[in-house]
Amino acid sequence: MTHITEETLEYLAKLARMDLADSEKAKLAGDLEEILNHFEELNEVDTTNVEPMTGGTAQRNVFREDEAETRKEMNGSADDIIAAFPSHERGYLKVPAVFGEQE
Amino acid sequence: MTLLKDLTIKKIHDGLVNKEFTAFELTKEFFDYIETRDAEVQAYLSLDKVGALAAAEQVDIAIAKGEEIGMLAGVPMAIKDNLLVKGLPATAASKMLENYTAAYDATVIKKLKEAGAIFLGKANMDEFAMGSSTENSAFKATKNPHDLERVPGGSSGGSAAAVAAHMAVAALGTDTGGSIRQPASLCGVVGLKPTYGAVSRSGAIAMASSLDQIGPLTKTVEDAAIVFSVIKGKDPLDATSVDVVYGDELLNPKLEDIKKLRIGLPKEYFIEGMDDYTKGEINKAIEKIKSLGIEVKEISLPNTKHALSCYYIIMPAEVSSNMARFDGIRYSRLDALQENEPKTLLGIYHEQRGQGFGKEVRRRIMLGTYVLSSGYYDAYYAKAQKVRKLIKEDFDNAFKEVDVILTPVSPTAAFKIGEKTSDPLQMYLSDIFTLTLNLAGLPGISIPVKQYEGTSELPVGFQLVGKAFREADILGIGQFYERIR
């Protein structure tokens, strides 16, 4: 039986870069436990010498010429992409300061 | 003009070519109807009246000039809100993308535009396509047009409800575990999930990349074939898309060929899970199909019982990776948080993601993060990938004996709003008959057992599963089924 402790939840939230509200923790831990325990039935499947299936139908590499292309020829232009960014100025994308006071 | 409820793609095409009505008039009539009907159904998140009427005028100009128009020219469509249409909102029904406007067209949209299709608006869905009832939309719950107290299914619930309520003639949806087929079944319309790789995913907001496919929801199987024939094809912008030549039988199936197909009924899909009403309806469909002269026999897909666990490991793992791009910086930022924003970038990620994602999305991100985390990867994710292979091999073996597989789509007809929202596992079971196809990459179609409109019965669909890239087989059987049901 898998048990999801508050520390596990905190650890996962940190990996996922996502705050959790205190009010949702108990229900979330319970849901995860129930779902993870359901997965235990997979232990009865013998997967010795089975190759993992990692993708959809055609599992082969796809190559193309290594040439620069502009998005305009393909779909949207650079201006459109920049305009869709939440914050921009004179063609530059604006983001908050990357290095803060702590951490 | 023909009543909206009787319109199909074929009828619109004939009506336009014979000058019975113009594309402009038709589009306007749809918006008038949406205004009243969608107040109760709530299928659309946003409408584009200006753009749609302008596109319709272009079709009318082409007809006036005597130009030949394609089958989709002037056809009013609803587009699921996780597909990008340049200049229109693409929220994926998430607060996270509330202010996002698409900067380019998805490849499927580009193809539909070239074909002259008209986009009425963006359809509601479960947030980021995660759910089976459209109740997980951050903005509103869509109602089932057959019974407004019930869900339309999901995640493409807005697309299915729009077509079922005659607020669009066709729609596009996406299907990761059943998100086209299950709402099609619950709303009494046709829904096709193509083979993985048959349709480009470029411009679809990704949920689980090895499982996602875009496909049509329509009133008839013939219409589904028409939309599929336009959107399919290899695309340099999606490396997983495949170059496949589909023959004439895709649009013009012949009964003599269809009769030669053998259909398998996998016993594992008929043992448990289905309620009696659904079972009764599915049996009616099987009898009708036999009456076409098609051989039907029992087959076995022994690993079916492990599919739910396998899917609910692989899908959240891919979800947790795909959702990483929504950081509150790149696409859209929650306005409410900007005033007292944390000072560090990391703090912004935590807060924006914490408040931007809804409950189900958070649950799947946490689950996916867990199964991919150090120490658990082999036990869950690697194991699930091996089980996925076994599930695929079950289908490979079955397809040595039969050409098409018939199963139920959903264990029950449409359930009541709120009935399953508190128990995630119960909700996950809604997709038990559909998600196996996404794991194996196979095409599947949901077809209503009969015409349900005007009856007091809830719609039930049955599913036909084809070999990879053999959409023609399931669409072909479906088209002949439609003529005799």
UniProtKB/TrEMBL annotation, chain A:
GO terms for molecular function: asparaginyl-tRNA synthase (glutamine-hydrolyzing) activity; ATP binding; glutaminyl-tRNA synthase (glutamine-hydrolyzing) activity; transferase activity. Keywords: ATP-binding, Ligase, Nucleotide-binding, Protein biosynthesis, Transferase. It is an enzyme of class 6 (ligase). Its EC number is 6.3.5.-. It catalyses: L-glutamyl-tRNA(Gln) + L-glutamine + ATP + H2O = L-glutaminyl-tRNA(Gln) + L-glutamate + ADP + phosphate + H(+); L-aspartyl-tRNA(Asn) + L-glutamine + ATP + H2O = L-asparaginyl-tRNA(Asn) + L-glutamate + ADP + phosphate + 2 H(+). SUPFAM superfamilies: Glu-tRNAGln amidotransferase C subunit. InterPro entries: Asp/Glu-ADT_sf_sub_c, GatC. The keyword Ribosomal protein does not apply. Allows the formation of correctly charged Asn-tRNA(Asn) or Gln-tRNA(Gln) through the transamidation of misacylated Asp-tRNA(Asn) or Glu-tRNA(Gln) in organisms which lack either or both of asparaginyl-tRNA or glutaminyl-tRNA synthetases. The reaction takes place in the presence of glutamine and ATP through an activated phospho-Asp-tRNA(Asn) or phospho-Glu-tRNA(Gln). This is Aspartyl/glutamyl-tRNA(Asn/Gln) amidotransferase subunit C.
TrEMBL record, chain B:
Coiled coil: none annotated. InterPro entries: Amidase (IPR000120), Amidase_CS (IPR020556), Amidase_dom (IPR023631), AS_sf (IPR036928), GatA (IPR004412). The active site is at 80 (charge relay system), 155 (charge relay system), 179 (acyl-ester intermediate). One of its GO terms (cellular component) is glutamyl-tRNA(Gln) amidotransferase complex. GO terms for biological process: translation. Keywords: ATP-binding, Ligase, Nucleotide-binding, Protein biosynthesis, Transferase. It catalyses: L-glutamyl-tRNA(Gln) + L-glutamine + ATP + H2O = L-glutaminyl-tRNA(Gln) + L-glutamate + ADP + phosphate + H(+). Its EC number is 6.3.5.7. NCBIfam families: gatA. Heterotrimer of A, B and C subunits. Belongs to the amidase family. GatA subfamily. Allows the formation of correctly charged Gln-tRNA(Gln) through the transamidation of misacylated Glu-tRNA(Gln) in organisms which lack glutaminyl-tRNA synthetase. The reaction takes place in the presence of glutamine and ATP through an activated gamma-phospho-Glu-tRNA(Gln). PANTHER family: GLUTAMYL-TRNA(GLN) AMIDOTRANSFERASE SUBUNIT A, TRANSAMIDASE. This is Glutamyl-tRNA(Gln) amidotransferase subunit A. It comes from Candidatus Wolfebacteria bacterium GW2011_GWE2_44_13. The lineage of its organism: Bacteria, Candidatus Wolfeibacteriota.
